[in-house]
Amino acid sequence: MLRLSSTLLVSVVLVGAARAEAPNIVFILADDLGREDCGFMGGKDIKTPHLDKLAAAGAKLDAFYVQPVCSPTRAAFMTGRYPMRHGLQVGVVRPWAQYGLPLDEQTLAQGLKGAGYTTAIIGKWHLGHSAPEYLPTKRGFDHQYGHYNGALDYFTHVRDGGFDWHKDDKACRDEGYATHLLAKDAGKFVNENAGKKPFFMYVPFNAVHAPHQVPEEYMKPYAGTLKGERLKYAGMLAAMDEAVGEIVDAVEKAGVRKNTLFVFSSDNGGPQPGVVTDNGKYRAGKATLYEGGVRVAAFATWNGHIKAGSTITEPLHMVDWYPTLLKLSGAKVSQKLAVDGLDIWPTLTQGKPSPHDAILINTTPNNGAVRAGDWKLVVKNGPDDPDGGEPKKKDGKESVELFNLKDDPYEKTNLADKQAEKVKELKTTLTGFAKQAVAPKAKPKPKDFVTPKVWGEKD
Description:
This protein is α/β, with parallel strands linked by helices. It contains 10 helices and 18 strands.
């Protein structure tokens, strides 16, 4: 009995030590951010001093991939699985959707909570609210604050006539500009939880997604150089940058900066590039399979662990954070579903190559793209209806594009005709992914749908 007790004591001590070393995780997600709108990615129009300082303390992720639109990226992050496995590969979870992230998925929040973390989502969920089981506090989050849908009014917190602001999954009537409210709640969460046990704080801002709304004082510095929606967008980004500064300040004042990992990313490339957002020279933008739609501004910072001022050019994907963060936390995860993400910690901290042989950009009934090494294949057969209509082919003729991203990062030269074997190889890879996909869940808005007074509640 004494021997068993000693062994048990050692186990408890080891578990306690592992938890003490597990980092706090602050994961910040911007919405519809242009790749080169922040200073740390080369942007010059808009000042982002807080993001730039945080990025400079860690590693810029130069080839970090997400999904073409927002709900799929969030699903990838929450599960470590490509959205084609959830049926979320086309469009986003609309307000009227009667589905969400499938309930058999184990979320990152659930895994981290099981490892002893206190967990919070402060911002936009966008993974389903048609039934209580889909809401954040039922998916592993101890605390929730913010909204379920995208594109809400930043001041009234209304989307399509329904109120959409919640705290711990109950309607919350806090008044104010959404970005300000999220920053305030994030600071409060840090103050209340830092130093007690590790925390995971996921902050998916609605900024800088339309509607473009911001208090006037944030636009004043840009009134002489920018105009129209671009001017409003600049103010929104400035407000979000300020909010990030407040979050970092809260972490520092709580005395836990040295043991906090910060990650920042956009959920997809910027929409209306050249008009509202700036994706630099990268081709196209949001909702496309080209680099401007899926290769986004991102960085990772952890003092003493990730080299300050570094840039990582290895291709990585949002799905990779799931296994990476769970491993860092010491979580013992029993995931019955296949995980697509891979541990990228050696890439981030030791300069190791990307663990991926191939990264799926997306696969839908009509389209798909995959990257393997420096090569990228884009196959298009016509537009997919984001609201679940029958996919229509333009003329029955398939478009095949092959790019060598090392020599041609801006996808200007299609090498498909000259590299038939490489096309065949990548088509085989893409087809392999496509065969594993489930049907998209997106459906048109029902004719009899009635907007509830409060989203997530039944009238």
